[in-house]
Design brief:
mainly alpha; 15 helices; 0% strand
Length: 236
């Protein structure tokens, strides 16, 4: 059986073979992804490699340390959520340099760890652009994927939205919007609370808060969505 170092080398060779200059150029020009070390491999192919490699915590840690964009994306499909530590999440967060790494890790790995809620609380208050984005992206992913928690922790998390609603940085405001809309689609109670918050933001004197509130209202106040959530809330 190959050691971790050999598996990292094999993975990097595979990524290099499947990378193209066109994909690498489009990462920035088309998708706004900044990655100084990139082969140019589409995320779908990275996911395929992840399935072939299987879950391996030590391999994921070693892949992250290479600094290659695709290798770091690969960790989302390779790491073992139960073995991810809070310290590891903070270390990796300090390396965040583009939205794709942030969102993929939150969507495919971090929201499955036992530390997810604590990192939402911590990261959503940080000043660094991509760490703060991670806090709200992680909240949105929990709203989408967490089937164990009731409404209470999500209702509490709404208090994190308003202080960040005036952050005009593109990658932050889009993640705050994503979180608010994901919360408001989760249940009837969360829809009501999210609409109340969105209405306040829509009346704000701050342009970013108004943008966020109005966008959320267009989605969350949709009559069909509200009827569906209300029906789901009724006892059968």
């Amino acid at each position: 059986m190959s050691g971790t170092g050999d598996r990292v080398k094999e993975a990097l060779k595979w990524l290099e073979r499947h990378g193209t200059r066109r994909t690498r150029d489009q990462m920035l020009s088309r998708y706004g992804i900044t990655a100084p070390k990139a082969y140019g491999v589409p995320v779908g192919m990275i996911q395929q490699l992840g399935k072939r490699l299987g879950r391996d915590h030590r391999l994921a840690v070693a892949l992250w340390q290479t600094g290659w964009y695709e290798a770091r994306m690969l960790t989302a499909f390779v790491d073992e959520p139960a073995r991810v530590t809070a310290a590891q999440m903070d270390r990796w967060a300090r390396d965040f340099d583009n939205w794709a790494i942030v969102d993929t890790l939150c969507f495919k790995l971090f929201d499955q760890t036992p530390h997810a809620w604590r990192k939402v609380e911590q990261w959503s208050r940080r000043r660094e652009e991509f760490i703060r984005r991670a806090g709200f992206a992680l909240l949105a992913c929990l709203a989408l994927h967490d089937r164990q928690s009731g409404d209470r922790p999500f209702l509490r998390s709404l208090r994190l939205i308003e202080p960040a609603a005036t952050d005009e940085r593109n990658f932050v405001k889009k993640s705050v919007s994503w979180a608010l809309r994901a919360l408001g689609r989760r249940s009837h109670a969360l829809n009501v609370a999210s609409i109340e918050l969105a209405q306040r933001l829509a009346k704000s004197e701050d342009a970013t808060a108004r943008w966020l509130g109005r966008g959320a209202l267009r989605e969350l106040a949709n009559p069909a969505l509200r009827r569906r959530l209300a029906a789901r809330a009724r006892p059968s």
